[in-house]
TrEMBL record:
InterPro entries associated with the record: UPP_synth-like, UPP_synth-like_CS, UPP_synth-like_sf
Protein name, entry field: Isoprenyl transferase
Similarity section: Belongs to the UPP synthase family.
UniProt entry keywords in alphabetical sequence: Magnesium, Metal-binding, Transferase
Record-linked SUPFAM superfamilies: Undecaprenyl diphosphate synthase (SSF64005)
Cofactor binding note: Binds 2 magnesium ions per subunit.
Sample GO molecular function, one term: ditrans,polycis-undecaprenyl-diphosphate synthase [(2E,6E)-farnesyl-diphosphate specific] activity
Stored PANTHER family: DEHYDRODOLICHYL DIPHOSPHATE SYNTHASE 2 (PTHR10291:SF0), DEHYDRODOLICHYL DIPHOSPHATE SYNTHASE FAMILY MEMBER (PTHR10291)
CC cofactor: Mg(2+)
Keyword Protein biosynthesis on entry: no
Organism of provenance: Curvibacter symbiont subsp. Hydra magnipapillata
Annotated Gene3D superfamilies: Decaprenyl diphosphate synthase-like
Length: 235
C-alpha cells in the first residue's frame, strides 16, 4: 500500500488559503485567484477516492469574510453560483454527495436556492462526501448547536452537542490541512478538530497539487494517534 493511502477511510478538512496572494503575485485581481482555487478544488476532489478519503470538508467562505471588500464578496457569491451551475451534474455522475455547511442567513435567494438544489441533486450519491463550509464559523457552529438543544429541552452533553453541529452526521476530521503558510485554524471546525492531526503547507491553494496532498497524507500516516492513551495501549 502506498504511504499516501490510508488503511482506513479518512475525513480530511482543508483551509484553502492563499488565493488572494497567488493572484497578487501575478498582478491579477484577487478574484482570479479564487477562480483558480475552484479548479484546484475540482482536482483534489477527484484525487480523494483513490487515496481512501471518504469525506472532504473545505472552508470556502467564513462568517468573517463578509468584512472583505464588497466587490470581492460579490465576486465570490457570483463564483459560487456559477460553479454550482457548471459542476453539480459532473459531481453527481462521479458519485459525490455535496453538502453546504453554515448559516444561510445573509445569502441571496439565488445562492440559497442553488445550494439547496445542489444538495438535492447529489443526495443519493454514496461516494465521496464533499462538505463545503460556506458562511461558516466554528464559534457560530457551537452556539447554534447549544441553542438548538436548549430550545428542544435536551441535555447538553458532548454527544448531543456533536450531533447538533452543522457538520453532523459527518464524523470528526482525521487530518486538518491548511495551505498558504499560515499557522492558525481561523475559527474552522473548532469543536470537531479536538483530535485531528494538523498539517500546515507553505503552498498557496491554487498551486496545491495531488503531490502536496500525498505529502500531507504520508505525514499523517507516520503519526501515532493516541487519543489520550499511552503508546503501549495503542500498540
Amino acid at each position: 500500500m502506498s504511504a499516501s493511502v490510508s488503511p482506513s477511510p479518512l475525513h480530511v478538512a482543508i483551509v484553502m488559503d492563499g488565493n488572494g496572494r497567488w493572484a497578487s503575485k501575478r498582478f491579477l485581481p484577487r478574484l482570479a485567484g479564487h477562480k483558480q482555487g475552484v479548479d484546484t478544488l475540482k482536482r483534489i476532489v477527484r484525487a480523494c477516492p483513490p487515496r481512501n478519503i471518504a469525506t472532504l470538508t473545505v472552508f470556502a467562505f467564513s462568517s468573517e469574510n463578509w468584512n472583505r471588500p464588497a466587490d470581492e464578496v460579490s465576486g465570490l457569491m457570483d463564483l459560487l453560483a456559477g460553479a454550482l451551475a457548471r459542476e453539480v451534474s459532473q459531481l453527481k455522475q462521479e458519485g459525490v454527495r455535496l453538502r453546504f455547511v453554515g448559516s444561510r442567513s445573509g445569502l441571496s435567494e439565488k445562492v440559497r436556492q442553488g445550494l439547496h438544489l445542489a444538495e438535492l441533486e447529489t443526495s443519493s450519491n454514496t461516494g465521496l462526501t464533499l462538505n463545503v463550509c460556506f458562511n461558516y464559523g466554528g464559534r457560530w457552529d457551537i452556539v447554534q448547536a447549544a441553542r438548538a438543544l436548549a430550545e428542544r429541552g435536551e441535555d447538553i452533553t458532548e454527544d448531543s452537542l456533536s450531533s447538533a453541529m452543522a457538520l453532523s452526521p459527518s464524523a470528526d476530521p482525521d487530518l486538518f490541512i491548511r495551505t498558504g503558510g499560515e499557522y492558525r485554524i481561523s475559527n474552522f471546525l473548532l469543536w470537531q478538530s479536538a483530535y485531528a492531526e494538523f498539517f500546515f503547507s507553505p503552498v498557496l491553494w491554487p498551486d496545491f497539487s495531488e503531490i502536496d496532498l500525498d505529502t500531507a497524507l504520508t505525514e499523517f500516516n507516520s503519526r501515532e494517534r493516541r487519543f489520550g492513551k499511552t503508546s503501549e495501549q495503542v500498540r
